[in-house]
Design a protein that fits this description.
By secondary structure, this protein is α+β, with helices and mostly antiparallel strands. The chain has 15 helices and 8 strands. α11 crosses α12 and α13 packs across α15.
């Protein structure tokens, strides 16, 4: 799946592939300090087995003829670190996913067609690891998206390792071990409530100790994994659904009771206040997760943060 191309690594992906749309729905807001989209390039600091590295991803081709290249910036990066970076990026940017399910949403509701066309080639992205998924869900509970992004940014600044390149400092996401060892007041200083700080720290410790693992959750059927996640401290059905979708890549999940997503779906479908939106979600079947990202993608398209596919 990978071949060397000069100083860059080519990441093979099935066409069409819309890198910008994929990165933007992973990023959610430009204020996200981790996932940066600058000059048609995705930049991200990653914590790898051998240390922290800054990666750069570009599509030198087009949506319909993608030529996706990865570079690990800076010196002192070993071959195994480069391979690990490539595996992580493939996961995060959905490079191994089928592009067709997004297109099939047109059959669910014709009003989706224009947005689906504009997002053609977008893949459902995933967070880099299980702890990052939890830490991108817990702070957002009962808060706006912008408020949650701000809290995560403080967590990254306070607890994330950094790498410097070209005169800039980029931070990676904090590890489960680091947050598991943090004091509750330090987590609260980032904007978390006491309950959220305690819950996130407990989850971090469980992941760091191996009691909670992606491998174990991935081996479960979706209903069983959702039930297991809902039994964790501070994790209800909505949070469990988001961890499954954005952390484990379960695209058969649409987070239940997601007020923002349902509001976005109502706007997307031009639906009235009495429309039964849950029926639309159910008609998507195991493509429900694609609908979630389609809703977010439309929001970003309208603000000029994603260029529509042609």
């Amino acid at each position: 799946m990978r071949e060397r191309a000069g100083r860059a690594t080519r990441l093979v992906v099935r066409a069409p592939y819309h890198l910008e749309a994929t990165v933007r729905v992973l990023q959610r807001r430009p204020s996200n300090p981790l996932d940066r989209w600058e000059r048609a390039t995705y930049l991200r600091a990653l914590t790898l087995t051998g240390g922290t590295a800054l990666v750069e991803v570009r599509n030198r081709g087009s949506i319909d003829a993608p030529d996706v290249r990865l570079r690990v910036l800076g010196g002192g990066v070993s071959g195994p670190m480069r391979l690990e970076a490539a595996r992580t990026v493939r996961r995060m940017l959905g490079l191994d996913l089928d592009p067709e399910p997004l297109q099939t949403l047109r059959a669910v509701n014709g009003t989706l067609s224009a947005t689906v066309r504009a997002l053609r080639g977008m893949r459902p992205p995933r967070f880099a690891d299980l702890f990052e998924a939890f830490a991108n869900v817990v702070p957002f509970q009962q808060l706006s998206l912008d408020a949650g992004v701000a809290i995560v940014a403080r967590l990254v600044h306070r607890f994330g390792a950094h790498v410097e390149h070209g005169g800039r400092r980029c931070r990676a996401f904090p590890t489960a071990a680091t947050v598991g060892q943090a004091r509750v007041p330090s987590l609260r200083a980032c904007g978390l409530s006491t309950r959220k700080a305690q819950g996130l720290r407990a989850i971090a410790r469980a992941i760091a100790d191996g009691e909670l693992s992606e491998a174990r959750l991935s081996a479960m059927a979706t209903p069983d994994a959702l039930a297991a996640l809902s039994g964790l401290p501070g994790i209800g059905p909505w949070s469990a659904g988001l961890v499954m979708l954005r952390g484990l890549g379960r695209t058969d999940v649409f987070p239940p009771g997601d007020v923002g997503a349902l509001r976005g779906l109502r706007e997307l479908l031009h639906a009235g206040p009495r429309a039964r939106l849950e029926r639309v979600v159910e008609r998507c079947g195991d493509r429900r997760g694609y609908l979630y990202f389609c809703i977010l993608g439309r929001y970003l398209l309208e603000r000029g943060l994603i260029h529509a596919a042609r």
